[in-house]
Design goal:
568 residues; single chain; 6-stranded mixed sheet
Length: 568
């Protein structure tokens, strides 16, 4: 009997050891080499050199599982500085790999290289990677798909999966576009087209043959992973004759809900299930801009792809166009609002509390007076600007903020970013005093103790023009407790907070002339950029950074900088 007992114990110990070994062995290390260089690409009847990765536009799709490690060696053969950001990845203790230039690292200069090393921890779904240096993001981007560590999705297994990347196209170098505008402070030229998986679609000239096609079989259900990589525009997306069931957003599962139209801001991702339940045929997927600002120029063209059923009877018939979806009007704010409101967490959420920091940040545009002796191209001879709490963020140049913090170098930034606007006013009024239009340029961060609970009200302003601002926080996911229009009133609006199943996001749209309330725990040490994901607004200064201090011990502290971290 004792021998049998010992044998059983040994077997159990062996089984436990095998499980532990399997658990460790299941995590993989993925090595990639990204070569960033100019490559001739033809779109809209023209061929010109654009900066892309490994000759691909969009760039390579990275596929990993939760718990895996990515090691990406980036070689810069382009003529511009470059960094890469892994949008939505928590980067726990690895802020050195986050990527925004002069915030967490100096850029990779032409001819240089840098290896990004980080582990995916407790995340799964659709994220993406992109350049975070000037406007290189226009063409330097790609999908980052995180599969479950074990098991399957919390929804029926799809037959196929398709990344669907929305982007913007210029018939010229996007860096030259923004530099030309920056010289005078004018608004940059709008794009010439939008694309789906790198192709504009057959509503544009010289684009018919290359239109992106998604091939499906009748009756099958597929997973579409939508990513808005556009530089400066939010988008409505619809597919003719088909409903979509939303199952995830920003790499967080959601309560499933069915819709005929999506709205994605730049930076956001949305996963949907689509069942091929219509008569065999060809159906347009189409996207155009959601333009929330009045009087602001935008690209009003429409990009398309085609959903094509196998055995489609009209596939080879010339002149037979696919069915076209009904898209909302460009300024259809109610539809955009309703879609965002449908996104909720799939189960009861334990909301972080009690709150240690009650923050109130204004987000909006502004105008700088023209310096003496200069010619300026903004309204009435001014220069466009943007700010948070009247601070227009200025990138340092001699050292990144994170390096300065780590090395104790003074003079690169200050820790006095205001917790509330320096002047309170009617933020969404029609006629705001011109005395409030000019922000203060500075490099300011807001310090947080490790483990602090932060509640942040993001208040849009109507200075120059109210607009929906997609606000992204690097290194964090946060709960969106509520959004609304007008000026936030804590006495009135706290009653609307969703404390049951708020969505978990990394990018939230602050409604046009409205507000959003988010909450998160500062559990990731480092310097974390927060900014509007309309890149023209980052250029103008609509950004700030949180500085999260180390906690107790190694597991709550920032890792040392890697040996190959680029120098300024």
């Amino acid at each position: 009997m004792e021998a049998l007992k010992d044998s059983i114990i040994q077997c159990l110990l062996l089984l436990l050891l095998c499980l532990l070994l399997f658990g460790c062995a299941s995590a993989e290390v993925h090595h990639h080499e990204f070569v960033v260089e100019a490559t001739p690409v033809k779109r809209l009847c023209r061929t010109h050199n654009i900066i892309i990765v490994n000759g691909q536009y969009p760039g390579p799709t990275l596929a990993v599982r939760d718990g895996d490690t990515l090691v990406v060696n980036v070689i810069n053969r382009a003529k511009y500085n470059v960094t890469l950001h892994w949008h939505g990845v928590r980067q726990l203790r690895t802020a050195w790999a986050d990527g925004p230039e002069y915030v967490t690292q100096c850029p990779i200069m032409p001819g240089g290289s840098y290896t990004y090393r980080f582990t995916i921890e407790q995340q799964e779904g659709t994220l993406w990677w992109h350049a975070h240096s000037s406007w290189l993001r226009a063409t330097v981007h790609g999908a980052l798909i995180i599969y479950p560590k074990h098991g399957s999705y919390p929804f029926p297994k799809p037959k196929k999966e398709f990344p669907v990347i929305l982007a913007e196209w210029w018939n010229q170098d996007p860096i030259r576009v923004v530099r030309r505008a920056a010289r005078t402070g004018a608004a940059p030229n709008v794009s010439d087209a939008f694309t789906i998986n790198g192709q504009p679609g057959d509503l544009y000239k010289c684009s018919n043959k290359e239109t992106t096609v998604f091939r499906v079989a009748p009756g099958e259900t597929n997973l579409l992973r939508f990513i808005n990589a556009a530089l400066n525009n939010e988008h409505f997306i619809s597919i003719a004759g088909h409903k979509m069931t939303v199952v995830a957003a920003d790499a967080a599962y959601t309560k499933p809900f069915t819709t005929s139209v999506l709205m994605l801001a730049p930076g956001q991702t949305t996963d949907v299930l689509l069942t091929a339940d219509q008569p065999a045929g060809r159906y347009y997927m189409a996207a155009h801009v959601y333009a929330s600002a009045r009087g602001v120029a935008f690209d009003n063209t429409t990009t398309t792809a085609i959903l094509e059923y196998s055995g489609c009877p009209t596939k080879n018939r010339p002149g037979v166009r696919p069915a076209f979806p009904v898209l909302p009007a460009f300024n259809d704010t109610p539809t955009a609002t309703a879609f965002a409101a449908g996104i909720r967490s799939p189960r009861l959420v334990k909301i972080p509390s009690p709150i240690d920091h009650h923050l109130f940040f204004t987000v909006g545009l502004g105008l700088f007076n023209c310096p003496p002796g200069r010619r300026c191209g903004g309204p009435n001879g001014t220069r466009f600007g943007a700010s948070m709490n009247n601070v227009s963020f200025q990138l340092p140049t001699r050292l990144s903020v994170l390096q300065a913090y780590h090395l104790g170098v003074r003079g690169v930034y200050t820790t006095d970013f205001p917790a509330a606007p320096p002047v309170q006013f009617d933020y969404t009024a029609t006629n705001i005093s011109r005395a409030l239009w000019q922000p203060v340029p500075a490099t300011k961060v807001y310090p947080l103790k490790y483990g602090s609970v932060v509640q942040l009200v993001l208040q849009g302003t109507n200075i120059f023009a109210g607009e929906e601002h997609p606000m992204h926080i690097h290194g964090y996911q946060f709960y969106v407790l509520a959004t609304g229009f007008g000026n936030f009133d804590p006495a009135r609006d706290a009653a609307s907070f969703n404390l049951v199943d708020p969505p978990l996001r990394n990018t939230v749209g602050v409604p046009v002339n409205g507000w959003a309330v988010i909450r998160f725990v500062a559990d990731n040490p480092g310097v974390w950029f927060m900014h509007c994901h309309l890149d023209v607004h980052i250029t103008w200064g609509l950004a700030m950074a949180f500085l999260v201090e180390n906690g107790v011990g190694k597991l709550q502290s920032l890792e040392p900088p890697p040996a190959d971290l680029p120098r300024c």
